[in-house]
Design brief:
The complex is a heterodimer of chains A (513) and B (308). With 513 residues, chain A is mostly helical. Helix content of chain A is 62%, strand content 5%. Chain A is elongated and about 90 Å long. Chain B is an alpha/beta fold and 308 residues long. A 6-stranded mixed beta sheet of chain B has the order 5-6-7-3-8-9, with helices on both faces. Chain B has a 4-stranded antiparallel beta sheet with strand order 11-12-10-13, with helices on one face. A 3-stranded antiparallel beta sheet of chain B has the order 2-1-4, covered by helices on one side. Chain B starts with 5 loop residues before the first strand and ends with a helix. Classes of the chains: A mainly alpha (513), B alpha/beta (308). Chains A and B meet through helix 1, helix 8 and helix 9 of A and strand 5, helix 2 and helix 4 of B.
Chain lengths: 513, 308
């Protein structure tokens, strides 16, 4: 056992000395945080204004479209201003219009501010209005408005392709025409003439979708009007939503209502599956590299004169597991600490009256912490990490022992990687039907048991599945350790080409050396 | 009588139909330097791996320091493999200390021992260098030190001199002699005969997995007929009639090689030269070198094996 530990400890120290290890520890949480905040930040700061032309040959739509686009833009600016007022309220005379509400939050009295400032209501020191996402421009120079659609389109094409650049706009010095929207004459819901949306970029469908939604509504409204129904009535009726309440029979009587914490409970396992996958993947790569180093350097011979192949294999598995364990432990404990701090912060905000105790935000951190502490998430994660790790790490270790170079190893790794990719693809589907036939079927495939069962863990899977798949996985792990141990023993001293399958089978039968 | 440090009894190793080692027997007494010689592909490395229990023999038995498996006495055995390699990112002292802990030393003792060895053999300044920063020769010295850091009773060195410059070869010879001086047993394989000649108390020569010779260096020399080299401008053919002369060959202009019959004394040739007289410019009655013995013993087979 001492030798297993010595090998393991060296392995751990060696990995802990690499940049990859520390980058893994620090970069992963940063990436997670960034992937949550960066798109929002980018959307606010870095978005480029897209220019479009609108030709309404029908004549009845352009004013209302423009009004709608303006309305959306104004709403966006108002929201930004309100958000700004919450964080930086002290500039005269702006601050006169900020009121403290009973919860102690700063709220801008937007209507009063607008009334006081008129058109300049956006000119507040320190406030930078976000750039407009969409900007309508008039027809490019040299194109005259005409009813001849083919001619118009031919003339617009070079601008749309970016071959010609629009005159400078308020947003950009060299705007490119992003889209051209042509509403045909006698445009209607039932007519054959479609709205023609021209644009090189067919992936960003925001403008197209906004227009379609708005025009559908307008046209429907027109029809209602034609039928003699009052538009105001229609608007009122359409604003109604059928009320729905989500209830879960597993919750205690009186609290059956599904809240954010319940939804988290349903999706939290996915987070852990992702963590499991990342850690197994990272750690197995380390293992592969380390075996290949020892093999290509022939250090292996010295090692094998001191330890048995079995001790070496277990030592390496344990050492890299330790590396992965430290990595995971850091991630999870960081998360728990952050949530615990949030619990404290929220409690103090409730105490100071800054946050109403009934708000969902008030109980969220406590709920998450309770989820971590009480449910089977963490113990389950630990068990499936260990069992899944033994399985995949042993496979990667054996692949490493079969190869002399990383290049050889990459060829052999292909199939294992494909197998390992499947749980990642399944990640979004399992929580939707955690005890359904697909999830149950996959749980019984030992290669996928750790991932799929982890994903089902908070959905109270049948005890038979939990114990049965667990036992199967343990047996499978032992079989893999045994078989791979035999291959490892023979392969580790071999040089030259990786062996054929038939040779591997012979080695498993103990006819290696 | 104390058992030998190492004993091989009728050891064979087959890979499928290929026979790497056949019926090899060998006995290495305690406290000696034992040379293990043979051409490329003779089965030296396979034999050493079997001695270390890295490979299992197909048949036969091996006793290492009285134990059937080297792993059972791993603390008392040191090993330097033929292909040298170190953990690239580890410091020189840490590599030595790591291998020493695998051989049973405590971490503190291993660290002290590593620094002590590096200092004694001139690598003190590189103790904290990563091994990837060391030259090939220095790396190899570090590896040799790693194999003896736990002060083993039996040290097995596979081609320890390959890749070392003459100065470092001498340092290594010094290390090997130091080991013997402290009563340790050294078994080393080589195909550089000069080292074997200078160092070995006993040696074994194998080719194609079979033993060709086992004995002292002197015995090895005596396996081929003694010969005398002379240089003269006279005709030496009259020497052929002497009873001690087996044959006479020209060895270049005015140079001749005389093969002697077993048990004859080179002095008889010298005396005959004076008597006849044959005027000599030089007379060389040196014993055959190990190199000659080796070529003589393994020559044809080794050539064949090398081109196989």
């Amino acid at each position: 056992m001492r030798y297993v530990w010595l090998v393991a400890w060296r392995e751990f120290c060696e990995n802990a000395r690499t940049k990859g290890f520390w980058m893994g520890i620090f970069l992963f949480p940063i990436i997670i945080v960034l992937s949550g905040t960066l798109p929002v930040l980018l959307a606010r700061q870095g978005v480029s204004t897209r220019h479009y032309v609108l030709m309404d040959l029908d004549g009845g739509f352009a004013p209302s479209i423009r009004a709608e686009m303006n309305r959306q833009r104004t709403a966006e600016l108002d929201q930004e201003l309100i958000a700004f007022a919450r964080t930086a309220p002290y500039s005269e005379p702006f601050s006169y219009h900020i009121r403290k509400n009973p919860a102690g939050l700063s709220e801008l009295d937007l209507a009063a501010w607008k009334l006081a400032r008129g058109d300049q209501y956006l000119e507040v020191p320190g406030f930078v209005p976000p750039k407009a996402r969409w900007l309508e421009v008039s027809l490019p120079p040299g194109i005259t408005a005409t009813n001849d659609v083919p001619l118009l389109e031919t003339e617009l094409k070079p601008w749309l392709r970016g071959e010609l650049i629009l005159p400078p706009s308020t947003a950009t010095p060299e705007p490119k025409l992003f889209a051209a929207v042509i509403i045909p004459r006698s445009y209607s819901l039932t007519g054959t003439n479609a709205l023609r949306y021209w644009g090189e970029n067919q992936a960003d469908t925001e403008l197209r979708d906004t227009l379609q939604r708005f025009l559908s509504e307008s046209l429907r409204r027109r029809e209602y009007q034609a039928l003699g129904v009052d538009p105001a009535v229609i608007a009122r009726v359409e604003s109604h939503r059928a009320p729905v309440v989500d209830l879960n029979p597993r919750k205690a009587t009186g609290t059956e209502k599904v809240n954010i914490a319940d939804r988290l409970r349903q999706w939290a396992p996915s987070f852990f599956v992702y963590l499991l996958w990342i850690s197994i993947f990272v750690v197995s790569q380390m293992l592969l590299n380390s075996v290949i180093e020892e093999k290509s350097n022939r250090i292996i011979e010295v090692l094998l004169s001191s330890v048995t192949p079995g001790e070496l294999m277990l030592g390496k598995l344990a050492g890299v597991a330790l590396t992965g364990g430290v990595m995971l432990g850091t991630w999870i404990s960081t998360l728990v600490v952050i949530i615990a701090v949030q619990v404290g912060l929220v409690a103090s905000r409730i105490a100071s009256g800054a946050l109403p105790a009934s708000s969902p935000m008030a109980t969220l951190p406590t709920d998450i912490l309770a989820l971590f502490q009480s449910s089977s998430l963490l113990p389950g994660f630990l068990a499936y990490f260990i069992l899944g790790y033994i399985l995949y790490a042993t496979l990667f270790l054996t692949i490493g022992s079969l190869c002399n170079t990383l290049k050889d190893a990459q060829n052999l790794m292909g199939p294992v990687m494909l197998i390992l990719m499947v749980p990642l693809f399944l990640l979004p589907f399992i929580p939707r039907d955690p005890n359904g036939p697909i999830a149950t079927f996959l749980s019984w495939i030992p290669l996928y048991t750790p991932f799929v069962m982890m994903n089902r863990i908070t959905a109270s899977p049948p005890l038979f599945d939990v114990i049965g798949t667990g036992l199967l996985l343990v047996v499978f792990d032992l079989a893999v350790l045994w078989g791979c141990g035999r291959i490892f023993r023979t392969a580790i001293l071999r040089t030259g080409q990786p062996p054929r399958i038939i040779e591997l089978l012979r080695w498993i039968q103990g006819r290696g050396n | 009588m104390t058992p030998p440090a190492l004993e091989l009894n009728q050891v064979s190793k087959y890979y499928g139909d290929f026979c790497a080692v056949q019926d090899l027997s060998l006995s290495v007494p305690h406290g000696c330097i034992y040379g293990f010689l043979g051409p490329n592909g003779a089965g030296k490395t396979t034999t050493l791996r079997m001695i270390l229990d890295i490979l299992r023999p197909t048949s036969g038995s091996i006793q290492v320091l009285g134990s059937p498996s080297a792993l059972q006495v791993r603390h008392r055995v040191g090993y330097l493999p033929e292909e040298k390699g170190l953990y690239k990112k580890m410091k020189a002292w840490a590599v030595i200390a790591y291998f020493a802990t695998l051989k049973g030393l405590s971490k503190t003792a291993a660290r002290h021992r590593a620094h002590e060895l590096l200092e004694r053999y001139g690598l003190k300044d590189f103790a904290n260098a990563r091994t990837e920063a060391l030259s090939k020769g220095m790396g190899q010295k570090v590896q040799v030190l790693a194999s003896i850091a736990h002060d083993p009773e039996l040290v097995i060195l596979d081609e320890p001199f390959s890749g070392l410059d003459p100065v470092n070869q001498e340092v290594l010879e010094e290390i090997v002699r130091d080991l013997r001086a402290r009563g340790r047993t050294v078994l080393f394989s080589t195909h550089v005969m000069q080292h074997a000649e200078r160092l070995c108390d006993r040696l074994i020569i194998i080719a194609q997995g079979r033993r060709l010779f086992d004995g002292s260096v002197g015995e090895a020399r005596r396996t081929i007929p003694h010969r005398v080299r002379i240089e003269t401008s006279d005709d030496p053919s009259r020497l052929e009639s002497l009873p001690s002369v087996a044959s006479l060959h020209s060895d270049g202009a005015d140079r001749w090689q005389i093969q002697l019959r077993e048990g004859s004394d080179p002095h008889e040739i010298l005396r005959a030269c004076f008597e006849l007289p044959i005027r000599l410019r030089s007379f060389d009655a040196a014993e055959p070198s190990l190199h000659e013995v080796f070529v003589q013993l393994v020559g044809p087979g080794a050539r064949e094996a090398a081109f196989r």
